[in-house]
Amino acid sequence: MYATATFVFAEFNAPRLPRVLDLLMGMLRADDAVHGEVTLETEARLVFVTDGLTLNLSRTEQPHQSAVTLSLKLRDRRAAPKRLAALTFGLLQATEALSVIWLDTSVAIPRSIFLRDLEDCLAAKPITPRRPALALRHRRPPSRRIRHSDKRYDSHVAAFEAHLRHALCRSASSDELAACAQSLPILARARVAITHLLVAPLAKGSLA
After folding, report:
1. pLDDT in tens, 148-170
2. Which domain holds residue 193?
């Protein structure tokens, strides 16, 4: 089902349909404009189709006036009137249409009134920042699900931690201190030598 708006112009003053489509391209989303294609083009009718959107344009000449009809079809039918309103507003600003016949009505709304009334509806509204801190305050911490299989590895973990503590807390051996001395600057070597002199007697005493 199409949502339709008809633009009424003075006699012989309606723009050609390719020109109307060019104007609409600047109002469509980038993906729609790039991936869409014209499936039908004559002097009186033009159809533009893209994923989820179809534009049907037609042009008529009547005594004392001419008209261009824009019909929009969306995958989401409920969103079609709102999307059509934005396209109508932009197209009305870009052309010299005198009035607009909106949707299924037969009333021609003067250009100035349509723009004035629709401008307030399409005006950008300030976005209120969200406050996630307030929402997080009432959230419960996630509960950890304990598996029965975890208990099988407790003894292995305890043994590894005991080995790690022993490896990190033990005193360095004479060979390890000598290896460090080979890779340190001169001042650092002096500090290692002093440490070796202090640690070696303690190590011998503990072995005695």
Report:
1. 555 555 676 777 777 777 777 77
2. 167-208
